[in-house]
Amino acid sequence: MAKPSSPRAASRSKASATPPVPNRERPPEPERYSASREEMLEYYRQMMLIRRFEERAGQLYGLGLIGGFCHLYIGQEAVAVGMQSALEVGKDSVITGYRDHGHMLAYGIDPKLIMAELTGREAGISRGKGGSMHMFSVEHGFYGGHGIVGAQVSLGTGLAFKHKYAGDGGVCVTYFGDGAANQGQVYESFNMAELWKLPVIFVIENNQYAMGTSVNRASAEDQLYRRGESFRIPGLQVDGMDVLAVRGAANVATEWVRSGKGPILLELKTYRYRGHSMSDPAKYRSREEVQAVRDKSDPIEHLKKELEALGVSEDELKAIDKEIRGQVTEAADFAEESPEPGASELYTDVLVGRY
Amino acid sequence: MIQAINSALDVMLGRDPMVVVMGEDVGYFGGVFRATQGLQAKHGRTRVFDTPINECGIVGVAVGMGAYGLRPVPEIQFADYIYPALDQIVSEAVRIRYRSAGEYWIPITIRSPLGGGIFGGQTHSQSPEGVFTHVTGLKTVIPSNPYDAKGLLIAAIEDNDPVLFFEPKRIYNGPFDGHYDRPVTPWSAHPAGEVPDDYYRIPLGKAAVAREGNAFTILAYGTMVHVAIAFCEENGVDAEVIDLRTLVPLDVDTITASVEKTGRCMIVHEATRTGGFGAELSATVQERCFYALEAPIERVTGWDTPYPHGLEWGYFPGPIRLREAAKRLMEA
Ligand SMILES: Cc1ncc(C[n+]2csc(CCOP(=O)(O)OP(=O)(O)O)c2C)c(N)n1
Ligand SMILES: [Mg+2]
Known about the structure:
heterodimer, A: alpha/beta, Rossmann fold, B: 5-stranded mixed sheet, 4-stranded mixed sheet, 12 strands, binds thiamine diphosphate
């Protein structure tokens, strides 16, 4: 508020000139990856693992074994699996937000350790202190698991800086959501990443909603792949429900970034089937909307059909399903049986040094 | 308490056309805790609206709106998300009046749920009030029950200074006695759960004596008021519990009167200990009541650690820690 009648100077703005036509190099349009039968089976297996793992996590939540927040990845499996299949564990790094179970599974992290973290147990990957949103694995170059929306985008940019600094040939894949794409620090990071030509692949997982807010209700530019343009970061829009399309785009992106051309932005159009978290009744969209996506573009069903067309037998797929069910049950049992962390864990790892 | 907050916003939107409510998912969705449910439908989309996820922008824009005459009530969905907005609060909202020598002021009320007890883990459980009580030019309010929440929120919105209004989320649905394994009792069973529909205010800067007693004084706010009262009842302890309600400005008179009567003082908060608001309280009591004190002041607080997911109740300063502190206080 102001004191009444404070004088204010009026300012006039001039219309700016028409923007110049971009004449810089662009990455090629990605093609759908032509995967071998074995690769496709492996994608199927990984996507199925994520789906069944998440379904079980949902059940454990319902039983009260998982508390607090739990964000399921169901529907988005093709994104993590397609992207991660193009990376090298041990060389590249990955960072994401709180919807992180899928990325970890796709990166080959042990489901038992993940599930035990969800239940807050000592054997969990963060010793029960992180929970569903905050999980890490140095061994896999997985840098979390972050509960603060958008924060990981700057961190991923820093990870990429280290890849470049060390000249280790690695890239950092930095995942974030359509909602996170509106945080200011995302753009601070874009600018630095391009300015310093950092090997970072920014992946926007556009699942159309940020909690209850659909993209076009929160984003002035809702074609999110264009969000890097004013920083000269090329962007590609990709079908995130098709694992082979994702892998094709991942190939283009890794090539671009590894060759020193700086960052690239991928917008992966996907969809989450469940509520934002376990406590979200998802009243902001209709059941029909969700069902239509499931029917038309489910990433697992999609791949399954292609596998069948390749002559993979029903039995072969069933065997995979069975193996996965076993793995998930084992993870759930492990997570239930592991003890809670001891009270002394409270004070460990607050600092690297000591107070 | 959710309904009380909703009612306060509703009343103020109705009374003052300059009031606007904004934040992530507060409009269409009605807020993640349902605090703004129905407000957009009733008051329209220009008065109650969704923002993108950008806390720095939310608060910054609200500060500008406030400078030009609106009374914005932005919501930060969890207190843990307030840090991106810290700069706009600390460098802009609270300083504009001083640096413009009174030309402009910023009548915003930032609402935000704080505290643990819901297994939120490190990024959904914090109590950052101490970060803000340290900031000059900012008022900090933390209600402990529905009746107070409504009256204080109305007073905060009407206040011409920036106010941070923290809502302890653990007591949104009922008072909490500190025993996490017991079922939640609803507010309907509590006298302060009764909230009039109409306008009323509770002035900022006035504490309440939540329980009378003589053995010692417990200074608490938010969730811990109920934990402290339950501790007294369950253990037959005759302590006086002061519910601060507003941390800044602080009701020093009520605190002083109580400590002078009892001669002993325990300070309880959920936030971490070092540099927490308890330290300020302790210093104030020492300055004001030194000659009345019969024992060193006790602080019962969260540990100096992040709020863990798995060891949530190990972090929470519950009945056991209160009992130990009470023993030390009475034996000294
Ligand atoms: C700084 C911050 N603000 C708000 C939140 C609350 N929040 C958690 S997830 C979320 C929605 C994010 O949506 P999006 O980025 O699209 O990711 P999705 O959940 O769809 O995977 C919000 C608002 C938060 N965790 N951190
Ligand atoms: Mg989203």
